[in-house]
Amino acid sequence: MSAKKNILVIIGSTRTNSSNFRLVKKLEELARDIFEIIFYQGLTELPYFNPDLDNENPPKQVIDLRQQIANADGIIVCTPEYVFSLPGSLKNAIEWCVSTTVFSQKSIGLITASASGEKAHEELRLVMRTLEARFTEATSVLIKGIKGKFNEEGDLTDAETIARLKKFIAAFNEQLNDNNVPS
Q1: DSSP labels for 6-64?
Q2: What is the CATH number of the domain that holds 24?
Q3: In which domain, by residue range, is 113 found?
Q4: What gap in Å lies between CA 8 and CA 27, rounded to an integer?
Q5: pLDDT digit string, tens, across residues 78-125
Q6: Domains identified in the chain, total number
């Protein structure tokens, strides 16, 4: 059996135990044999993006973010939609990476899980395409009505969503394996 792939997960919600976090916890459970999930913990500690600070000595939190992205075999971004857009904290983290190539040709899975999520999903896909991240239709998932997919205990119980997560995991794993093939 091959080694597990190290996957850095960036959750766009800063809320403790958010629907996005619980969704990724279910994904982690479903993929435990193939992925080692590492949750990025520094979203709220990042300074506001300032091009004047994005020089040869950026803030330590920014260096840590970039290093974690670079060291991961792949990235999963799971985010809600706030006011028809990406949450500001997630957008801020991404902006700190624009002047680098950390996302360039990096396999990424995109999950937008929100009440609607269409605008944020469209925006996330556009931003990540601009940064040259690698994703496909199968590794870019929009889950509408996310809060209704959990039971009162906070467990993901919606069979269709669980099936979609399983398909996402298989497609993302295939995409990661394709990374190892010389182009």
Answers
A1: EEEEEES--STT-HHHHHHHHHHHHTTTTEEEEE---GGGSPPP-GGG-SSS--HHHHH
A2: 3.40.50.360
A3: 5-179
A4: 13
A5: 999 999 999 999 999 999 999 999 999 999 999 999 999 999 999 999
A6: 1
